[in-house]
Design brief:
This protein is 24% helix and 36% strand. By secondary structure, it is an alpha/beta fold. A four-stranded mixed beta sheet has the order 3-2-1-8, covered by helices on one side. A four-stranded mixed beta sheet has the order 4-5-6-7, covered by helices on one side. InterPro entries: DUF1508, UPF0339_domain, YegP-like_sf.
């Protein structure tokens, strides 16, 4: 089961995407509920395209937005961010020890996000 959970946050609202009881990505803080709902719709639409730009590989041609970007953080973990067609980041992941795990979660989001229910916490 997949669901977007809208939550109150300091200075606004945000969402988490939960798949099989695990939070797989989260949003920025939006000032309004309407902005948060638009962010959810952007994830549903753009994740299903399943375009992945692996920034950990040198000399790789960059894909146009919308896309997932996989990158390595300062601590050596792997993360992704989902960018909308305008280049705005609409969702980010926690860190993964292995890049393969990061890529598996992206694949899962691409398959599940479009049908996720929306729920308020």
């Amino acid at each position: 089961m997949s669901r977007f959970i809208i939550k109150s946050a300091k200075d606004g609202v945000k969402f988490d995407l939960e798949i099989n009881t695990h939070v797989v990505c989260t949003s920025q803080v939006y000032k309004s509920l309407n902005g948060c709902q638009n962010g959810i719709e952007s994830v549903k639409k753009n994740a299903s395209l399943h375009k992945v730009d692996d920034l950990t590989i040198e000399e790789k041609a960059q894909l146009s937005n919308p896309k997932f970007e996989v990158y390595q953080d300062k601590a050596g973990g792997f993360r992704f961010r989902l960018k909308a067609s305008n280049g705005q980041i609409v969702a980010v992941s926690e860190d993964f020890k292995a890049k393969e795990d990061c890529l598996k979660v992206i694949e899962l989001i691409a398959k599940e996000a479009y049908r996720a229910q929306i729920q308020k916490a």
